[in-house]
Amino acid sequence: MPILVVGSVALDDVETPFGRREGALGGAAVYFGLAASYFTEVRLVGVVGRDFPESHMELLASRGIDLAGLQVVDGKTFRWGGKYGYDFNARDTTFTDLGAFAGFDPQIPERFRKTPYVLLANIDPRLQLDVLEQVERPEIAGLDTMNYWIERTPEELRAVLARVDILLINDSEVRQLADEPILLKAAARILDMGPEILVAKKGEDGAVVFSREEIFAVPGLPLDSIIDPTGAGDSFAGGFMGYLAATGDRSPEGIRRATIYGSTMGSLCCEAFSTEKLVDLAPHEIEDRFQEYKRLTHFEHAPILLNA
Ligand code: AMP
């Protein structure tokens, strides 16, 4: 089943303790689309300026991403700058130049309108609602957002939440959205707002997935090398939704596997700058990483006599 993603396509200036890149391919829709492209067919809707390099277009197309919904307009491509120290969970946004993204008016091409899986990446909730108006009710709609929209457009965000099936946000955003410090209670509140599944991402520390049936948690996999964590959250979403779209399996077991594929794509993303790692992964690299998560989290219970 194909997936439609609507969101930012960017040129990123990123600095980490291991180096820097300027004008690197980035944006939430890009990371999501590349990660999901290993699982299923991806359709992308976004906007760039005329400065967006042809080589970036070619790279996205080389992963089979359908760019019919990528508008190229007068003006500059959205540019974002991020700087990391050794704590990769803490990032400074050095600048945000919206450029053409400021006037983004998503137009869903006719042939994308019946896409069964849709991911609304982090954009203005009013635009997310507009996208939902343009498409036929998808089988599964996923949503990302950020503190900016939680604070500034709470009503519109609630309206989108009521219409989506999966919400994927950071644990701090879960607490903020629910106005509740205890993650478990916050998750229960959010599930009452509409989504069936809530994925609370915890950066380097893994993720917790809540549904009415169960809670599943995956730890962070200690990595040999972390070069640039930019886009890890969007790559997680790409692996998670990509697996669901490829299999249609929304059973509790399927959601667990989707969580591991999400973590797999998020962790692989961190191993190189920008999208460099995500562009030519071999299938065995994805499967090997999945197995590493399995080994990391597996244990047997052996009863012992406890002192009581
Ligand atoms: P993540 O590391 O998952 O938060 O995603 C980082 C990506 O999000 C970068 O490639 C940025 O270009 C993009 N980004 C940063 N700020 C925004 C924003 N306000 N709206 C949409 N995309 C953004």
The ligands bound in this entry are: adenosine monophosphate
The SS-based structural class is alpha/beta
- Morphology call: globular
Major beta sheet summary: 9 strands, mixed
**Strand percentage, roughly?**
15-25%
How widely separated are the two ends? 54 Å
Strand order of the largest sheet: 5-4-1-8-9-10-11-12-13
Poorly predicted runs are: none
Could you walk me through the main structural features you see in this protein, from its secondary elements to its overall organization?
The protein is an alpha/beta fold and 308 residues long. Helix content is 35%, strand content 25%. The protein contains ten helices and 13 strands. It has helices spanning 28-36, 54-62, 125-134, 147-152, 154-161, 171-178, 183-192, 232-247, 252-269, 283-297, and strands at 3-6, 10-16, 19-26, 42-49, 66-73, 78-84, 91-97, 117-120, 140-143, 166-170, 197-201, 207-211, 215-218. The strands form two sheets. A nine-stranded mixed sheet has the order 5-4-1-8-9-10-11-12-13, with helices on both faces. A four-stranded mixed sheet has the order 3-2-6-7. Strand 11 (197-201) and strand 12 (207-211) form a beta hairpin. Helix 3 packs parallel to helix 5. The radius of gyration is 19 Å and the shape is globular. The termini are far apart. The mean pLDDT is 97. Adenosine monophosphate binds at residues 8, 10, 12, 26-28, 80, 96, 122, 230-234.
